[in-house]
Specification:
heterodimer; A: alpha/beta; Aspartate Aminotransferase, domain 1; Aspartate Aminotransferase, domain 2; 2 domains; four-stranded antiparallel β-sheet; B: alpha+beta
Chain lengths: 406, 155
């Protein structure tokens, strides 16, 4: 599929917004959905719907197989050794909370340090703060420079000078688009005996991921940021870690046997999937993965990097525009400010031209505080964005300046 | 021209660039900082009042054009007015922003403030337009601070 063929798979791109064609630049928040995912959900709800893991009837057995087959698809996508290492959650946030409440609760001790990076989304900060409050561990931060690049020397120093139990950082920053050196950072953490959790919410749709080669202990991502449905996500964990972890949420489906005296818990992944899961959403994620792999992540990466380069070249043409975050290796998000217009005014005004961008702190307030700004405007890319979208964004920003008398 | 551009042209060119009463009172009788955690807008309202009438009101802070212009126009609208009337204007303004009142039909005391009616089309911006009013009422109620988080305004 070439770019235009890919675009034609997204029905929402055919609609008008305020009488303009839609240029959608909020894929960092959530991606639009391709036709096969929409049709697949319709088909499942309309013809094949049934619960899983219980019913001894054809439809339930088929639904169970469809659901369980997605584990293998996810394992293929992120190169996990076994599908039993894929746990379905409600999203990245839920996956990180799961690790904090199971691995963290059981194995991270008072006085030990949890490292997070200065680039984190609130979902990779708050669960660790809550864990620290419970177990008496200490949260420390890997600093970044003004370009939004993590300071690797400071990171190494933190690992040397503290008893670090776990390092949690994102593969790609949702606020600035910085790609972090996952392989190097993971190897360094392991040298110092720390486990590693990588938040892949912002990388999964943009580049190949290899949890095995990268030696990650935990990796999390959300379905809805990778062209799948909302309400489901994934936690990958190393087998021995998952097996050692106690359950978090109790309920049906996560047990072998229950009596009022004692319950015996199931092995992973079932141990961590209490209750009826988001069946349709997981099946939809499977369709999204098939769709993604039919194009190929290497190709998607190349297509997006082309548009990103074009955007980074064209945006500075806009008078008073300042790019926020200048990492040389980047993907997804492009944050910026205008001299005269506040990010919220920018977002409202470009919307009037059919251009959808995000404004605010992007759930990464510490990033904004570090850079001394209250908010940014953010254009984030998906596989469907083309140079014409970038042209419309640039024109819309000229329009904002005109309104503000620039 | 789209509604947002119209709204912005009239409001921005005047009150955003040259906000009225954009200053601080050294000895206010009432003061309240307001904060919108969603977008980082923050401003402080200073009031001089005997409890019956608002003798003076001014503000300081930073935020988007909508919040700045709204604060600026609010100070002009309430200065010299009885506190009771200010409460009425606030509830009318709030009802207009949430679409519960149409300023083109029925009686109201909004005057120039009716220009903010277009904000109701952008529910995420309602808090920008109402921040200064929440801080004003917070100041009159002697609150330490107000936040638009948890407010019943739509996001």
């Amino acid at each position: 599929m070439n770019r235009e063929e890919i675009r034609s798979q997204f029905p929402e791109l055919n609609r008008k917004v305020h009488d303009h064609p839609l240029s959608y630049f909020d894929s960092g928040a959530t991606t639009l959905k391709p036709e096969p995912v929409i049709k697949g959900l319709n088909q499942f709800y309309g013809e094949d719907y049934a619960t899983i893991h219980r019913g001894a009837y054809l439809l339930s057995e088929k639904a169970t197989k469809a659901y369980e087959d997605v584990r293998a698809k996810v394992a293929g996508l992120i190169r996990a050794p076994k599908s039993s290492q894929i746990i379905f959650t409600s999203g990245t946030t839920d996956a990180i909370n799961l690790v904090a409440n199971t691995y963290g609760q059981a194995f991270i001790k008072s006085g030990q340090v949890i490292l997070v990076s200065a680039l984190e989304h609130h979902s990779n900060i708050v669960p660790w703060q809550m864990l620290c409050e419970r177990v008496g561990s200490v949260l420390k931060v890997i600093p970044m420079n003004d370009d939004g690049v993590l300071n690797q020397e400071a990171y190494e120093k933190l690992l040397k000078e503290n008893e670090v139990a776990l390092v949690a950082f994102n593969h790609v920053s949702n606020a600035l688009g910085t790609i972090n050196p996952v392989v190097e950072m993971t190897a360094l953490a392991h040298e110092h005996g720390a486990k590693v959790l990588v938040d892949g919410a912002q990388s999964i749709a943009h580049c190949p991921v290899d949890v095995q080669n990268w030696d990650l202990d935990f990796f999390a991502f959300s379905s809805h940021k990778v062209y799948g449905p909302t309400g489901c996500g994934v936690l990958y964990g190393k087998e021995e870690l998952l097996k050692s972890m106690p359950p978090w949420k109790g309920g049906g489906d996560m047990i072998y046997s229950v009596s009022f005296e004692k319950s015996v818990y199931a092995d992973p992944p079932a141990r961590f999937e209490a209750g009826t899961p988001p069946i349709a959403e997981v099946i939809g994620l499977g369709i999204a993965i098939d769709w993604l792999l039919s194009i190929g992540l290497e190709k998607i990466e190349a297509l997006e990097q082309e548009v990103q380069s074009y955007a980074l070249e064209r945006l500075p043409e806009v008078k008073g525009l300042r790019l926020i975050g200048k990492a040389s290796k980047r993907a997804g998000a492009i944050s910026f400010l205008l001299d005269e217009a506040h990010p919220h005014d920018i977002a409202t005004l470009v919307d009037s031209k059919g251009v959808a961008i995000r404004a605010g702190h992007h759930c990464a307030q510490p990033v904004m505080t570090r850079l001394g700004i209250p908010a940014t405007a953010r254009a984030s890319l998906g596989v469907y964005n083309n140079n014409a979208d970038v042209d419309r964004l640039v024109d819309a920003l000229h329009h904002v300046n005109k309104i503000f008398g620039v | 021209m789209s509604y947002s551009s119209e709204l912005y042209q009239q409001v921005i060119l005047d009150h955003n660039k040259k906000p009225r009463n954009f200053r601080k009172l050294e000895e206010p009788t009432h003061i309240c900082p307001g904060h919108n955690p969603l977008c980082g807008d923050h401003l402080t309202i200073y009031i001089e009042s005997d409890g019956e009438t608002i003798q003076d009101v001014c503000f300081e802070g930073s935020g988007c054009a909508i919040s700045k212009a709204s604060a600026s126009m609010m100070t002009e609208a309430v200065k010299g007015k009885p506190v009771e009337e200010v409460q009425t204007i606030f509830s009318q303004f709030h009802n207009m922003l949430t679409g519960e009142m149409d300023p083109s039909s029925g009686e109201h005391q909004l005057g120039k403030l009716a220009i903010f009616e277009g904000v109701k089309e952008y529910s995420s911006r309602v808090k920008c337009a109402s921040l200064s009013w929440h801080a004003l009422v917070g100041a009159l109620d002697m609150k330490k601070d107000v936040s638009t988080e948890g407010d019943k305004d739509p996001m």
